[in-house]
Amino acid sequence: MEVGIVGLPNVGKSTLFNALTSSKSAQSANYPFCTIEPNEGIVAIPDDRLRRISQYIVPKKLVPTALKLVDIAGIVKGASEGQGLGNKFLSHIREVDAILQVVRCFDDPDVIHVSGKVDPVSDIETIEIELMLADMQTLDNSHSKAERAAKSGDKEAKLRVDVIKKCLAHLQTDQPLRKLEFDENEQKVVSSFGLMTAKQILYVANVDENDLEGKGPLVMQCREFAAKVGAGVVPVCAKLEAEIAELEEADRKEMLDSVGLAEPALGVVAREAYRVLGMHSYFTAGEMEVRAWPIPIGATAPQAAGVIHTDFEKGFIRAEIYQLEDLEKYKSEKEIRNAGKLRVEGKAYVMQDGDICHFLFSN
What we know:
By secondary structure, the chain is of the alpha/beta class. It has 15 helices and 13 strands. The protein has helices at residues 13-22, 25-29, 48-54, 87-95, 120-151, 155-171, 184-193, 217-229, 238-245, 249-259, 265-276, 301-308, 310-314, 324-330, 333-338; strands at residues 2-6, 35-37, 40-44, 61-63, 66-71, 98-104, 200-206, 232-236, 279-285, 289-296, 316-322, 343-345, 356-361. It has a seven-stranded mixed beta sheet, sandwiched between helices. A hairpin with a 2-residue loop joins strand 2 (35-37) and strand 3 (40-44). Helix 1 packs parallel to helix 9, helix 5 (120-151) packs antiparallel against helix 6 and helix 6 (155-171) packs across helix 7. The longest helix is centred in the middle third of the chain and has 32 residues, at 120-151. The chain is flat, with a radius of gyration of 23 Å. 36% of the residues are buried.
């Protein structure tokens, strides 16, 4: 799972990326928040259910789910035509699964805005337009080749031609492809092109310390735009979060209390990015570890087992499943079983967020 962080220059994108990927909360979560490359990092998804499970099934470690963040170079107007880093940043966006756009929602005369004024909606639209133009170029470049192949009777090529025409017609209405519906076969074609406006997006409103809840006029502009396009908005003060990320746990709690935050806003960002990817978690719990496993919403029990190991999916027999609420009520798996609350589910079972599982499989 990869999320690309995009934004215009000087919006706080790299500050946010550095805070997300270097947080000292990594040590308490037993997860390596390490930078993979200069512009990539791993971020754990905070989930208090791990701690709650571990109160009854005490493990040697807790393992949260995680996603990869890719810090993509600042985008400028004309990027689709090669301005700035042009095609280099576009290729990075094509490879990620979702987009996180940092939008400047603070005034600071010492931080120059690339367009000369702070205007969140204009910033969002600038990037959206560049991505739409780049998608149109990609589709145009593929059109003639697909048509030639389709004339020979190639059914897959014909499907590609139909999808290309469908996407181009939609983009010409100045609407991103994420607002267009595709069936399963069409979606495979869209994914093969790496079309950027087909990817889900989350807006991070970078606010100042006086608007941590994101209720100021600049953030409200961002929220109103996002509501129209069906996207989410998370307010974050990247500067404050960078300071919090550097603190030890005790000092971090004190600072959070002083600014009225229950947790670092970065945790909210990570969870929302996870949701935007269309993912949720199930858990396995034992003496070695209590672990959260990432699965697409709608995954079946065999598919969930396959996340652990492909052999588990191939040889799947059944899953034994219970809920965290049952563990908190009955205190142990043995008592859950005795109370008849341990469910046995087969191959058709669709996994629910928060299921705690044991998988039985044959070799």
